[in-house]
Protein 1
Amino acid sequence: MSSSAVASKRLFHEYRTLTNDPPEGITAGPVNEDDLFLWEALIQGPEGTPFEGGLFPAELKFPKDYPLAPPKMKFTCDIWHPNVYPSGDVCISILHPPGDDPNHYEHASERWSPIQSVEKILISVMSMLAEPNDESPANVDAARMWRERRSEYEKIVRENVRKGLGL
Amino acid sequence: MPEQSLNIPQLLAVLLITFFAIRWYISPSTTTHSSNSSARQRRGPRPEQIEQIAQMFPQLDRRSIGWDLARNGGNVGATTERILGRGLDVPPLNFQLPAVSTASPSTSSTPSSRHNPAASQPKHPDLITRYNLGSKVNAPVEEKEDISAGKKPAWSGDKAKRQAELQKRKEEMILKARQKMLERVEKERKGEGS
């Protein structure tokens, strides 16, 4: 009970910060304030990448012991990216708790800790869109295409961007 | 005779094994398999049910809803409770929604994303459909000049106002992005033409 109260308080605070001072290209907040543990975010595709101009909705599910444990993030749109599972689940080091990486791909400093925040996650995901991490792909097909057939990869990404905006 | 006394248990064992082998061979094809597939056909999720839940929880993916309904035999109440409780599971990749043309009643100006049976990726409705912005798409976005200038979204002390403000910000963001993309598409088309 108390840990969930701590989490609610922190999430509410982060919501306020993000509302008053939103980072460029990011809008995020609880789907419904009655449940602070489920958020929706809209992330703009970074400029100079095939994701440019796109808007990508994602949901964030926070655990009751947030910020000790990281949230889970999932894109709720079609997104073709080496670090996003076909289900939409995002695989990025900041969403992994420290000590959770048996392969030691990631430095502890890149991973989740209570000093991180929703804002930092969303910004990291934005830069992940621009620069996929090839080391441990979540979508193997997308990763292979990104490596070997870049123009085809970019074409799919651009198509998804337009479809996502209903064009 | 030692040879014969050895042979009888061996014979028995062979008979026993054959018996079980035949039984195992026959039973899965007659009982479990057929009842399984008929149950699935009978009680698969109906599109109306998925639609009903998707309207209550627009943030959810229709495939996840369909998957949950498929598993609980099309029980809308149970799925709703699960969503409110611990949330839905991610459906397996090979799970397909029943093929229907999900023509959304509210928005007619945009083609809703169709379910492509060949694609292994889940299909999501576009943002215009999801946010019900069909009616606002063609209206000019009010004065986009001050995209960067001022107009800081202030935090409201009132919960309902905050909620409405957030919704408005998201809608504006979507409409602006669409507008920009539309301009870009047209520019490209012109560039190709000339």
Protein 2
Amino acid sequence: MIKLQNISRSYTLNQQIVHALKNVSLEISAGDFVAITGKSGSGKSSLLSVIGCMDSDFVGDYYYDQQRINQRNEDELAQLRNQHFGFIFQHFFLINRLTAVQNVELPLYYQGVEHDQRKLRAQQLLRVLGLGDRLTHKPSQLSGGQQQRVAIARALVTNPDIILADEPTANLDHHAAQQLFGLLLQLNQRGKTIIFVTHDLALTRYARRVIQLDNGRIEKDEAYA
Amino acid sequence: MLEVIRLAWATITDYRLRSILSILGISIGVAAVITISLVSLAGRQIVFKEFSTYGLNTLWIYRTAEDANPLKSVREGSGITEADYLYLKNNCCSHVVRFTPVVYHRDWIMQLRAGNYYSKTSVEGVDVEHAAINNDQIIMGRNFRVDDIKNKRPVALIGTATQKKLFGHLQSPLGQELRMGTLKLTVIGVYTAKERNLLTALGATNGYDVNDRLTMPYTLYQQILGSKDIHTLLAESTGLENTSIALEEVVLTLKRLNDNRFQYTTESMLGWIDTANLIMRNLTLIGGFAAIITLLMGSLGIATMMSTAVIERTQEIGIRKAVGAKPGDIQIQFLAESIIICLIGGVIGLMFGVLALMIIHLILDIQVSLLISLFIILISLTSSTIAGVAAGYMPAKRAALLPPLEALRYE
């Protein structure tokens, strides 16, 4: 499904070149549940950004469903993100002036789905995630756990193939974190590919494959039954 | 499209105060553009309205004054005789519709009396066609007839101001008698009042009140003055565009008839209209420049607002891009916000414009045509849309080009 070959990514920070990824090669199959772990600055988030087509400024080859996507333009990458990836971020990244429903609707808006249908699907998903009484609430009126569930609903609303989560529990309490991983497990059982980044080794127990990065290189790539 | 408008409108209402201030900036700019256009159009209309009181196709021909030897004209006459006039009337010219002689006393203003009422009024001797050439309407009574002229009948038409001065106490002046020296004249008609407020204000009428006048058959006035001279010849050309050729025809014929003894001065409305147009155009240019600067300031305000919005909403742009917004989607969103703000500003500016239109209508009594109203709508909407696109384009483009990851991480 995803194949990275010799991916390198560097950027300039305070006039110094930082090599975030160095010749990273890996393959991820459909239905995998992958944890990317490593110390701070090891390149975890950079790798996730490349996988999620959020960052196309890398060297190397990236194949998605056997299609090379390196040279795709911004419009094509946006379409890929919209149709195939669902993102869950550490800081939720909800738009504060929009309601929970409106936030969840966003990916559908860019798919050209009609307003009423959009709203209906967003409401249904939020109800499934236990936020039926928070539909018109704005992010500032929701708890961290609730905000993360809105973000999950937004990631799922287009029924993507892959869910990408960047430190998804970093701002959640233990209970909310457990709930989140319970949900990710359920999604994986339904065939979704889950790739999450964490620095918390305890969370890797949920994954069937753990990729450990160190200094921009894959140090360990282990699969569990 | 509807979705884009809905999204843009939601954003505009979310940032209400900023949007209102931007709208205000644009509406002032648009109102300025409309008002200037309106003043220019109304000004032209006023000028044309007042010019038309002379008859737009009117030509004046008179002997060139010889200031160095003023007595010469007294000795040699006015350079246009009744015979010249009759010849021109019957044989000349292809670009002239009609002629009338104008005969007047050197002083022009004469004292009139009706009973115990007196008036200092301008007096002219004219022919039947004078009213048509001079664009005169007769509100009461009748115009001169050919036999009035032929028989030198002591009849007169008067202006409304003269009527008020001499016969204000009567219901109708028709059939009433008035005196000019020893001459008794019977009033047969009253001219409809004319307005030359602007020209009077500009000093172009030499203090002469267009409604304080009396006309009588030129044949009668010539008899009183003891001369067959015609002081000015009035003609009506076949059209404004034929003015020059008509004047040339008349002058050449007059010179031929008088063996080239005299030089003639000519005047036409064309020259006046050109001058008025030049003045109005310059005024419009100056005003238009000021209005465009105002509109530009409003646009700059919007551009600043949109630039700030792009910075403030960088993370939002990142989120939208992460979930699938294409650069074009982001650009259209910001551009739509800018255009909607400007269009609302344009509509409010339009309201100001309509208000100005109503005021002009009330104060100056100018009939503002539907065409002008459409023109204003067109101006306001076009200028505000252009302002919107111009103001929003660069910030929108900047937003569209932001890399999604960089935008997301923006603090």
Protein 3
Amino acid sequence: MAINISGISKRFGAFLALDKVDLHIQSGELLALLGPSGSGKTTLLRILGGLDRACGGTITFFGEAALGLTPRDRQVGFVFQHYSLFRHMTVRDNVAFGLDVRPRRDRLPRAVISERVARLLELVQLAPLADRYPAQLSGGQRQRVALARALAIEPKVLLLDEPFGALDAKVRKELRRWLRRLHDEMNITSIFVTHDQEEALEVADRVVVMNNGRIEQVGAPGEVYDHPASPFVYDFLGNVNRFECIISDGTAKIVSIGLTMPAIGAEPGPALAFVRPHDIELIRLDAATGDAGGGGVACARVRHIHAIGPTARIELDIEGHRFEAVMDQDRLRCLGVRAGDWCGVRLTRPRLFSSNSAALIQE
Amino acid sequence: MLAKSTASAYGGRPALQDPAWLRWTLIGTALAFLALFVALPLLTVFIEALHRGFGAYFAALVEPDALSAMWLTLLVAGIAVPLNLVFGILSAWAITKFEFLGKSFLITLIDLPFSVSPVISGMVYVLLFGLHGWFGPWLRAHDLQIVFAVPGLVLATIFVTFPFVARELIPLMQSQGIEEEEAAASLGATGWQIFWRITLPNIRWALLYGVLLCNARAMGEFGAVSVVSGHVRGLTNTMPLHVEILYNEYNFVAAFAVASLLALLALVTLAVKSVVEWRWGEDISGRRDQG
């Protein structure tokens, strides 16, 4: 176990930024802290880096209590959202800074420092720009300098705050794949903060979903996406259709679209059903009878079809209640459904949450 | 010429092109005003100082009282400016890098010397440290003299010139934020290293600019210094006070000769300030692209 966080709280005035957060981070993993702004993810990262103080709780780094340690003693590399490069220093001096400021007894000889800096600049593909100033670099280049600077001190843990937040979409994609490869090569325990679910799901080994200062769910990307533990995670990760329903006698009924599904053993009361767009099945109605042919199927009007790329997004409407389905273009072509047609709708994998406690009722 | 080319750059829109007579009237008025109120008096100082020839001019400057006034002025500025440099950096640092109770009150307090008449600030020191002042008896018992002596001059000068450095640094440090300092801390730098290697290099030109202004004012200060000096010739007279005494004695050549030195100081300050502004203007205002 690399990092053990238990019961960490942080309060800014009346605002509770972190509410008794517990988290265990494995050695060598790449972990994403994902959440909307104000969810506490950056605050948690800053507390780990020693830039903010926690109001309560404990953190251990590799078994050693860390909260009393200075950033220097924690051996943590921090990459800031806006890079925070030293504007009056060249790229080379920026990267060397962490080695230059070591106390004399720990400081490496000058030649070793410059050799290591050269190697790092090679690693982040910036060797030709070593004598430039930060103002002369592009955003992606600055971010790589920031990364090289953090890596120079050979940190045991690398913390990255929205590392790709200020970059344009294309550079962002390149850089995050590059970061993933870099992590696989160097194998430093790394934690990065993001509000971009795609980024978190693509890059991280495990994703920590945060909301209102609490952790909603921790898990591998696929696990978090396929089995969200709460309505919040469902809403936050990917597109989802949300239906209000009522449970009675072991069945849940979505009143608005007139569908029922089994909810065996569930407490009677109001509940929420979540269905991903690709878990909504469209069925061609029998043209003559208008019969969908079986239970669990509702009749919907196709309002609009967005067909760009390999998948099509289909806007459906049942008595004014709109929702969305996604399927392959090919399948849609086979079905032959067009905007304005009627078709049958089946919910293949709904998940039910209690409205009162937000607890999962049934997969 | 300039106005014309600017107007054509905007496509010659009539709304931006004032008639020539209006342009020249405005420019002429501004120039005449500057000539009458700035250039002419400055010129007069040098003409009056030199109108009995260079011999009389230098005689007035090397006269013992004049030399002692120059020495005293350098001494007072030499103590007050470095102290204000340190105080200015400390207060700007505290205001921009930390959140604390009474911060806005502190900012107001820093501006106070700008809004209070220098005479009043001089009198405050007399009331505090004078013979019959609050600390007077204690100071006399310990054989310390502040008012009518060099320490009083230094105190009054520090008070009057305090805002210059801090005022120059606060907006710059506010715009620079604390991100670079945090980055340095995360890389293991100590507070001292952060200050010398990150903060100071980022503020150095604004600091120089503030020090220049502070120094010009410290050497030229009259009101506050006049109150606490006691006008003891050769002992507590700074250059501005010495000029006044000579002038009141109808010794115009000597008065203007010393005054011309102060005027030269002002011109040099202005020149260095312009160079700093021209060369490092963006660093001073914090407009340069954030690294």
